[in-house]
Specification:
The protein has 627 residues and is of the alpha+beta class. The chain folds into 2 domains: 110 residues, Immunoglobulin-like; 348 residues, no CATH class. It is 49% helix and 9% strand. The protein contains 18 helices and 8 strands. Strands 4-1-7-8 form a 4-stranded mixed sheet, with no helix packed on it. Helix 1 crosses helix 4. 42% of the residues are buried.
Length: 627
């Protein structure tokens, strides 16, 4: 019998999405080419996120220097942009400026450090601008600065807006089809028109659920579909969502700055997904271990299973997808010891051991007539919470009390040109110092995101030793979400209320720690440090997002989790695979010498969509890579 329509439909929809993205790419590239032809010859050398600035000096007898500073660079030194005199056409009077964030231009006299004028401006990619520096017409010595647009730049974000609406439209169509297939009227019609066995395959192919027996009775009357899923689809959906965004940003995110990691304090989209993955890993740990304990497995046997899985994860991260391969063939003297999978390995091991030591095997389902009180799912596990609080106290003490040579105690800054250049080699404070001391400079990440804006020169590892403590904390908060799901199984209102309560509680903690500010709080949100405010903020988002997905997928069943559900079921394979095959066709291909955001976005979306398609096919074949 032929393959059920929804199975083919998923593949066709994904391939259609890729085709539409490629069409958008060709169209946008054509528009970009026409736009580029109107640029001057000097503009032809611009790259992504750059604009051309012509500096015009109309001062009577004054040379000056132009300095610049990005708004993204907190308390940074100004950097030299250009030196200008009265001859407008000199090559030194042409400068290239960054367009990712607004910048401040400061014009200083070459005879002194006094600022003649200062101007704040948001340049746009591939734009052509002129900076005019002149005296007031009134005859005073006051200097004025003015920026004129010579060539109106295009809209850089247009490709991602178009791609977003394409994928949203496809998602809506698939969701609508899934919803219609679950209506009794549609199912009754299918039972009458199509062979019952084929109907069963049709519906379950769309829903991705195990085969159910006897959709239609032998007398041709249809039974009501009331399948209870064997596992919470919302967890796999959340895991898959985090994973797919992680794959997209790892591939480059179209070259857009908001799909790259924040240089230091603050958040971008790229900074959200790894903590969510850790959070949902903690949720799965509790559900898995609780189930195995109820089946009679010994804690000692489970410990060896946890240990073996942790070792496998660590070794894959160490030898298969080590980021220091970008420096060429590695030797033991320069291999990066920590990394994403290494942190996942250590976090998984520590949280699992904590669970095995103190958790209690809970019945499934829990008695419905038990006495309930607000914090029962916390108080019963108070030894675990005590250890987590001790770990957090350790992080705070090491971060704020450990003496770091040449650096102020408790330093949380990026070093480099930050803090007005006072502490150039203090990147990460205690966190960076511990990694360099314990692991060695050659064994940590050599190209941290802080060197993009803050021009840091020392290596720093965002997946270092000290930050792993807070990775354990966010995984434990995910573990708490798993306890809520077990304690209040089939009590959807209780689950939703507790998820929302935890989200609000974590949000309030974040607001206190950060003072609702990017840089001025007690402990800023910082992905490189995995600061406690970063943990509380991302946990706030995670509880809220899990609440929404749980409500839509497992409570109301208006969404079956696609397409994120499929990679969520094969997360290790997709993550390792996308790292190993990153530079292979069709995940990457050669682009023109000066590629645009459109070309990068097309390449990254195609690569990410292919991994979703691979995960879907593997799911249909019931092939899963478990370690």
């Amino acid at each position: 019998m032929g393959l059920a329509w929804p199975t083919c439909a998923h593949c066709l929809c994904l391939l259609s999405a890729l085709s539409l993205v490629l069409l958008v790419s060709c169209t946008s590239s054509s528009i970009s080419s026409q736009h580029a032809d109107s640029h001057s010859k000097r503009s032809a050398h611009l790259k992504m996120d750059q604009a051309l600035l012509l500096i015009n000096n109309e001062l009577p007898s004054e040379k000056f220097m132009v300095f610049w500073r990005s708004d993204q660079c907190f308390q940074c030194l100004y950097q030299t942009l250009a030196i200008s005199d009265q001859r407008i056409e000199r090559a030194s009077d042409v400068a290239v400026v960054d367009t990712r964030h607004p910048i401040t231009l400061q014009i200083n006299s070459t005879s002194g450090k006094t600022a003649l004028c200062r101007i704040h401006y948001s340049f746009r990619e591939y734009g052509n601008y002129s900076l005019w520096v002149k005296t007031n017409h009134s005859g005073t010595k006051d200097v004025t600065c003015e920026i004129i647009i010579n060539l109106n730049p295009g809209y850089t974000n247009l490709p991602i807006v178009i791609a977003f609406f394409i994928y949203v439209a496809i998602f809506i169509l698939l969701s609508l089809g899934s919803f219609l297939l679950r209506l009794n009227t549609i199912q009754n019609w299918l039972c009458k028109r199509i062979n019952p066995v084929e109907t069963d395959r049709l519906i379950n192919s769309e829903l991705g659920s195990p085969n159910r027996a006897d959709l239609c009775s032998q007398d041709a009357h249809c039974a009501t579909w009331n399948t209870v899923p064997q596992r919470l689809r919302s967890l796999d959906t959340f895991r898959g969502l985090s994973l797919i965004v992680m794959v997209f940003v790892n591939y480059g995110g179209g070259g857009y700055w908001f799909f790259k990691h924040q240089s230091w304090n603050g958040l971008t989209i790229a900074d959200l997904v790894f903590p969510w993955f850790v959070f949902i890993m903690g949720t799965s740990i509790h559900l898995s271990l609780n189930t195995m304990l109820r089946k009679g497995n010994s804690r000692w046997k489970l410990f060896w299973k946890v240990l073996w899985r942790s070792i496998q994860l660590f070794l894959i991260g160490l030898f298969v997808i080590n980021e220091n391969y970008c420096r060429g063939p590695l030797s033991w003297s320069e291999i990066r010891i920590m990394g994403v999978l290494q942190r996942l390995s250590l976090t998984y091991f520590l949280v699992s051991v904590l669970e095995l030591l103190f958790t209690k095997s809970l019945p499934d389902p829990m008695p419905q007539n038990r006495t309930c009180f607000l914090l029962q799912d916390v108080i019963l596990f108070w030894p675990q919470w005590l250890i987590i609080l001790v770990l957090q106290a350790g992080w705070l003490c090491l971060t704020f009390l450990l003496p770091v040579p040449g650096c102020p105690t408790g330093y949380l800054g990026p070093g480099g040109i930050g803090d007005f250049g006072k502490y150039p080699n203090c990147t990460g404070g205690a966190a960076g110092y511990i990694d360099r001391l314990v692991l060695g400079e050659d064994h940590v990440y050599q190209h941290p995101s802080s060197n993009v804006v803050y021009k840091t020169t020392v290596p720093y590892d965002p997946e270092g030793i000290l930050g792993t403590i807070n990775s354990v904390v966010i995984a434990f908060l995910g573990l708490q979400a798993g306890k809520i799901l077990v304690f209040y199984k089939n009590q959807h209102k209780q689950v939703l209320v507790r998820f929302f309560t935890w989200s609000v509680f974590m949000g309030v903690l974040s607001a206190i720690l950060t003072k609702c500010s990017t840089n001025e709080g007690f402990i800023p949100v910082n992905k490189n440090l995995w600061s406690i405010s970063y943990v509380t903020t991302l946990s706030c988002f995670a509880f809220f997002l899990l609440m929404l997905i749980y409500f839509l997928v497992d409570v109301k069943r208006v969404w079956m989790g696609g397409p994120f559900f499929y990679p969520g079921m094969n997360s290790i394979l997709v993550y390792v695979g996308h790292e190993v095959f990153e530079n292979y066709f069709p995940f990457k291909w050669k682009m023109q010498d000066n590629p645009s955001h459109t070309q990068h976005l097309t390449q990254n979306l195609v690569a990410t969509s292919i991994w979703v398609l691979i995960a879907y096919i593997l799911y249909r074949k019931r092939l899963f890579w478990k370690i």
